[in-house]
Design brief:
- It is a multi-pass membrane protein.
- Keywords: Cell membrane, Membrane, Transmembrane, Transmembrane helix.
- It comes from Saccharothrix tamanrassetensis.
- The chain is mainly alpha-helical.
- The protein folds into two domains: about 240 residues, no CATH class; about 170 residues, no CATH class.
- The protein contains 17 helices and no strands.
- The two termini are about 20 Å apart.
Length: about 425
């Protein structure tokens, strides 16, 4: 059997699992919005953004471990201790970050008086480090079925536990956040599938080398996560006591608008080899630049149409789905839709830079987007909702302009070696 059909079926299996997992996230948001008060919903969505932002930041664990595992699989051997080192280094970093979140000044800023919620968030983030390590190990050794099972199980554990807690009347913040964090430990059920793929006696690397490599990768992913999934937590840090409970509806709308962007990872993965092939000769590079220029223009047009539709239908849809206690302005929905579409285009431009091995440019691009969003939140006048939406509009739009410039300035000298 040829490799192409096998790869196609693998991509299809993983794609279906990802769609199912993403689809299970929407009912959770609807249920929690309806059982919690707007004030508690704001805290829950801050927790959600922090946990999944940390998860997004740790995605490089999966990529690095899968790289090591794939090399080992091709060589006909098990993955060495280096994969364990990757997970261990990142887990230590998450523990340190968790301790910061649990500090009273930080935890109270994010979650009010809920010190327990800060601890649950830290635990959920630590679970992600091990989960991504196992996922990378399974994918690198082409164990597609258990990999897909783990992706679905993570979301299913959350849905089942949260639904059970609500039916049992345990619909407070702590039980609901525990249900969400529990999904990060679904890897425990699949751990035995990865143990036979490891050889802990080989493949050891210097700890300093591992730490430096993962720091750069996680930093870049963390900057992306700060405007993708972790933005509610960033906004909450800038909220003043006089702002009241104004962010719950905005956070709900933002979280729903951002969920589809999590499905772009397979598209980014497919874009990289396509860019490599097109960059093999001058004619291909010309066609690639034309394609990228048209794509950026189309993204702006689609964002404008989406923003108009969001302004027209968004406030009504929010009240219909989440309840009448949540009200968001037409201008806010328009800004969030614009932001999500433009941010998707920035993510694809970043994949082009990855294909060209321009890691520093990728880091610069996301640092610009993250810094701009924080600066707008911090320095802009107006109440917190206005500043939050403005930050989401300005930062990705600037990112699209800079990202387009970075990829379109490439000339014939920037040859990317084609894959064999």
């Amino acid at each position: 059997m040829s490799a192409a059909p096998v790869a196609g079926r693998s991509l299809g299996t993983v794609g279906i699992a990802t769609l199912v997992a993403a689809g299970l996230g929407y009912p959770l948001l609807i249920v929690t919005a309806r059982v919690l008060s707007p004030a508690d919903a704001e805290v829950f969505l801050t927790f959600w953004g922090l946990v999944f932002g940390a998860g997004s930041a740790m995605a490089p664990i999966e990529q690095e471990v899968s790289r090591q595992a794939a090399l080992a699989d091709v060589a006909g051997r098990r993955t060495g201790f280096g994969a364990v080192q990757v997970v261990a280094v990142c887990a230590v970093g998450v523990v340190l970050l968790g301790l910061v979140v649990m500090l009273p000044p930080v935890g109270s800023r994010l979650f009010g008086s809920g010190g327990a919620i800060a601890a649950v968030a830290a635990a959920g983030a630590i679970g992600f480090a091990f989960q991504f390590g196992l996922r990378g190990l399974l994918m690198g050794h082409h164990r597609v079925k258990p990999y897909s099972g783990l992706v679905v199980a993570e979301a299913l554990v959350r849905a089942v536990l949260l639904g059970g807690f609500v039916l049992a009347g345990l619909n407070g913040l702590v039980p609901l956040t525990v249900a969400v964090a529990a999904g990060s430990f679904a890897w425990l059920v699949f751990a035995w599938r990865g143990r036979s793929l490891l050889d802990l006696r080989s493949g050891r690397e210097p700890w300093g080398v591992i730490a430096r490599r993962m720091f750069v990768l996680v930093l870049s992913a963390g900057l992306t996560a700060s405007v993708l999934t972790g933005y509610p937590a960033i906004v909450k840090l800038f909220k003043a006591p006089t702002d009241g409970d104004t962010l719950s509806a905005l956070f709900l709308t933002l979280t729903v608008a951002r969920l589809p962007l999590l499905l772009l990872s397979p598209v980014q993965a497919m874009a990289v080899p396509a860019v490599v092939r097109l960059s093999a000769d001058a004619d291909g590079r010309r066609r690639l630049r034309a394609l990228l220029a048209k794509g950026a223009a189309v993204a702006v047009g689609v964002a404008a149409v989406g923003a108009a539709l969001g302004a027209l239908l968004g406030p009504w849809a929010v009240r219909l789905i989440f309840g009448s206690k949540y009200s968001v302005g037409s201008w806010a929905v328009a800004g969030l839709v614009w932001s999500s579409i433009v941010l998707g285009a920035v993510m694809l431009l970043a994949a082009v830079l990855v294909a060209r091995k321009q890691g520093n440019a990728v880091l610069l691009l996301w640092a610009l987007v993250a810094a701009l969003s924080v600066l707008v939140l911090w320095l802009s006048p107006g109440e917190i909702t206005v500043r939050a939406v403005l930050g989401l509009v300005v930062a990705p739009t600037a990112g699209l302009a800079v990202g387009a410039w970075l990829v379109l300035r490439e000339r014939a000298g920037g040859v990317v070696e084609p894959s064999r």
